[in-house]
């Protein structure tokens, strides 16, 4: 399906056949991608759009590479659904962001309820990481090695890895990952990292722990599950991204959606959403080491939000009938207007970090308030993601 978009909503260039990944690459990003689920094929319009590399240049499996899927019992590995997503991506000439290895949620009970010593947990982590990454070796552009290790107040989230190894588990996980697939970009990935400083300080601490151990870490993934009315400004987002790139890392928005609450949405909330998508995508364009953007599904018919956040929804670029929304047009126009302003992303020699602007914002109370409000609205995210996997 091709969409002839007349960008009537903004005074911008006429974008004919707007195709997000093609536009993003012209604007100097490596990809514009989407999360994919094995069930996507049941919606033919959606599936057809998903499979065109001009639209999406990168896939992230929503659940298929999580621990409960890949190693449901100790030492027994299963890759069926993940294999089909990875081979579809590669035959479509798309990149894979592979997701995820060490995470407290969607863990099989043999891990979550096991009783572990430092040595036994280290060996379980090594076996899991080396088998799973080894299986997909050479096929994943990036791996989310550690996912959601932080509480919203910036402290380390309790999980079986922390319990057995203390904060050394971060470096241990990245060390095994680097050994298993030396070419993959290794990421720390979490939500609410867009709001400096409360939780983001914790992510900076994790990065520094891994670096201090002499172990490679290449990027911070900001999930970017946002809420209309609470998305920071483009400038504030850029400032935050630069805090991570100043550590010598790439950044990426890995699970972008911007939910509307309360429903029903209306013309003004849909228009606000379009502007907030522009702030998100614009901040990535503003940061030379922002690699790309992945949306967590692209139509309101397939979004995880309504089951997870009661009363919220309509978070995607396309509506329930896979028709483009104002957010799709505004993102397309933004990307089109950025064409040629950055050099093409060169994986062999990625851009170096930009200096951190010192005058933009400091850690103020209002930033903290924003962060806390957002945090409150996302606490249920991961347990609901777990529920989703069984659906
Ligand atoms: C941070 O939040 C967690 C989870 O709510 C809580 O258990 C912990 O006590 C908090 N730590 C601080 C220092 O407030
Ligand atoms: C940007 O950050 C400043 C300083 O923390 C804050 O006062 C302001 O409200 C933020 N604006 C947005 C839209 O995020
Ligand atoms: C549109 O929805 C928002 C909430 O998302 C609400 O605050 C606003 O009053 C609504 N506007 C109209 C015109 O209904």
UniProtKB/TrEMBL annotation:
List GO terms (cellular component aspect).
extracellular region
- GO: which molecular function terms? endo-1,4-beta-xylanase activity
Q: Does the keyword Secreted apply?
A: yes
Q: Does the keyword S-adenosyl-L-methionine apply?
A: no
Task: Point out the signal peptide segment.
Answer: 1-18
Subcellular localization, as worded in the UniProt entry: Secreted
Task: Give start and end of each GH10 domain.
Answer: 24-334
Please tell me which top-level EC class this enzyme sits in.
hydrolase
Tell me what reaction this enzyme catalyses: Endohydrolysis of (1->4)-beta-D-xylosidic linkages in xylans
- Main subcellular location: secreted
Q: Where is this region: Disordered?
A: 339-360
What Enzyme Commission number(s) does the record list for this chain?
3.2.1.8
Q: Which Gene3D superfamilies match?
A: Glycosidases
List the InterPro entries hit by this protein, alphabetically.
GH, GH10, GH10_dom
Gene Ontology annotations of biological process type:
xylan catabolic process
Keywords, comma-separated and alphabetical: Carbohydrate metabolism, Glycosidase, Hydrolase, Polysaccharide degradation, Secreted, Signal, Xylan degradation
Pathway given for this chain reads:
Glycan degradation; xylan degradation
* Family, as annotated: Belongs to the glycosyl hydrolase 10 (cellulase F) family.
Q: Could you tell me what this protein is called?
A: Beta-xylanase
**Annotated organism of origin:** Echria macrotheca
């Amino acid at each position: 399906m091709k969409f002839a978009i007349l960008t009537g909503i903004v005074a911008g260039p006429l974008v004919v056949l707007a195709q997000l990944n093609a536009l993003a690459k012209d604007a100097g990003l490596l990809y514009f991608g989407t999360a994919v689920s094995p069930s996507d094929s049941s919606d033919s319009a959606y599936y057809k759009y998903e499979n065109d590399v001009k639209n999406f240049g990168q896939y992230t499996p929503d659940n298929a590479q999580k621990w409960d899927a890949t190693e449901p019992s100790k030492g027994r590995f299963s890759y069926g659904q993940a294999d089909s997503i990875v081979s579809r991506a590669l035959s479509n000439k798309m990149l894979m962001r592979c997701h995820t290895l060490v995470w407290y949620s969607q863990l099989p009970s043999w891990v979550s309820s096991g009783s572990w010593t430092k040595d036994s947990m280290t060996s379980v982590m090594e076996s899991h990481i080396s088998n799973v990454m080894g299986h997909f070796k050479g096929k994943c552009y990036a791996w989310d090695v550690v996912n959601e290790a932080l509480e919203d107040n910036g402290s380390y989230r309790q999980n079986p890895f922390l319990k057995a190894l203390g904060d050394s588990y971060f470096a241990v996980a990245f060390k095994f990952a680097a050994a298993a697939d030396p070419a993959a970009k290794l990421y720390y990935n979490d939500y609410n990292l867009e709001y400096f400083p409360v939780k983001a300080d914790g992510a900076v601490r994790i990065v520094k722990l891994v670096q201090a151990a002499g172990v490679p870490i290449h990027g911070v993934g900001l999930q970017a599950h946002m809420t209309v009315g609470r998305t920071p400004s483009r400038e504030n987002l850029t400032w935050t991204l630069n805090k991570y790139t100043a550590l010598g890392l790439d950044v990426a928005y890995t699970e972008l959606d911007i939910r509307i609450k309360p429903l029903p949405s209306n013309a003004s909330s849909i228009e606000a959403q379009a502007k907030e998508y522009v702030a998100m995508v614009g901040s990535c364009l503003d940061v030379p080491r922002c690699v790309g953007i992945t949306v967590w599904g692209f139509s309101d018919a397939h979004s995880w939000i309504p089951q997870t956040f009661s009363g919220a929804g309509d978070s995607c670029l396309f509506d329930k009938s896979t028709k483009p929304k104002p957010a799709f047009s505004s993102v397309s126009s933004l990307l089109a207007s950025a064409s040629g302003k950055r050099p093409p992303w060169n994986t062999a020699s990625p851009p170096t970090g930009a200096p951190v602007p010192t005058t933009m914002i400091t850690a103020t109370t209002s930033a903290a308030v924003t962060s806390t409000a957002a945090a409150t609205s996302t606490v249920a995210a991961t347990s609901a993601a777990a529920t989703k996997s069984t659906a």
